[in-house]
Design goal:
Blueprint: E1 11-14, E2 19-23, H1 34-39, E3 45-49, H2 66-79, E4 86-91, H3 93-104, E5 109-115, H4 124-140, H5 143-153, H6 158-161, H7 163-173, H8 178-189, H9 195-198, E6 205-210, H10 218-227, E7 232-236, H11 243-246, H12 248-262
Parallel strand pairs: 2-3, 2-4, 4-5, 5-6, 6-7
Antiparallel strand pairs: 1-3
Bound molecules: D-malate.
């Protein structure tokens, strides 16, 4: 692994007990975990970092890939005095980082939560789309990345049923910077295929996915859960790519059940 300067990440923290790291997706910030910071604080110590160049965290010096993001998240736990194994959770891009932590630092993983994510690497077509999105961000700033994703983030019916969730997503995405977007797109484009890792995961694992995810199909979650020994799979109805925001009560109930089963 290359040696890179790891920026100190801003972390939102609530609660006490079992440490639970929640890593945000793209192009979000720790603000996406507000319903979990408030709703799960009785179930554990929730630690939600802003990845470099997002929210209140400084940008990282490139190159900064998924493995360095994994290191940065663990350094953020260290900085909060969390050195015992934690529950490592991540949504979408955050899930790619959680899988990198499971591969590189399995001793830090008390449990794994793979949320709205996939194990596979980018296809050639997906890599080409990342390149285009990187060029667009370099020319026009961070906004087009969020605008491009916005129509796919919620379950189709939730744009009308939950206008406040749609508005909140726009506010969350306003926390992205050009440096963060370029770093994240590059890291996702170059990430490894984690599929071979799945069978070797021995930590208790929870897989959660929205039934109507338009960004990553639920078949990806089903395949991950089938490959990870002893994992639990929960599909959430009337939820798309951000089930923690679209159906926060059910999402929190599932996570609380998982955390309760660990102790
Ligand atoms: C995310 O939601 O974090 C991203 O859409 C994941 C991706 O683009 O692969």
């Amino acid at each position: 692994m290359q040696t890179t300067k790891i920026p100190q990440l801003h972390v939102e923290i609530k609660g006490s007990g079992t440490p639970v790291l929640l890593v945000h997706g793209f192009p979000f910030t720790s603000r996406m975990w507000q319903p979990q910071l408030s709703g799960l604080a009785q179930a554990g110590q929730i630690l939600a970092p802003d990845l470099p160049g997002f929210g209140a965290s400084p940008a990282a010096e490139p190159p900064f890939g998924v493995d360095q993001l994994a290191q940065a998240c663990l350094a953020a736990l260290d900085a909060q005095g969390v050195s015992s194994p934690a529950v490592i959770g991540g949504l979408s891009m955050g899930g790619y980082i959680a899988l990198a932590i499971a591969r590189l630092f399995p001793e830090r993983v008390r449990g794994l939560m793979l949320l709205s994510t996939r194990a596979g690497a980018d296809s050639d077509e997906a890599k080409a789309n990342r390149d285009k999105a990187i060029a667009t961000a370099q020319e026009q700033g961070p906004a087009p990345a969020g605008e491009g994703m916005f129509p796919k983030l919620l379950a189709p019916g939730n744009y009308e049923a939950q206008p406040e969730t749609a508005t909140e997503l726009k506010t969350i995405m306003a926390g992205a910077t050009t440096a963060g977007v370029v770093m994240a797109l590059t890291a996702m484009r170059d990430r490894l295929d984690s599929t071979p890792l799945l069978r070797q995961i021995s930590a208790p694992t929870l897989v959660v996915h929205g039934e109507e995810d338009q960004v990553i199909p639920k078949s990806e979650a089903e395949a991950m859960a089938a490959a990870i020994p002893g994992s639990q799979l929960h599909l959430i109805a009337q939820a798309g790519h951000v089930p923690n925001l679209e159906q926060p009560e059910e999402f929190n109930r599932i996570v609380e059940g998982f955390l309760g089963g660990l102790s």
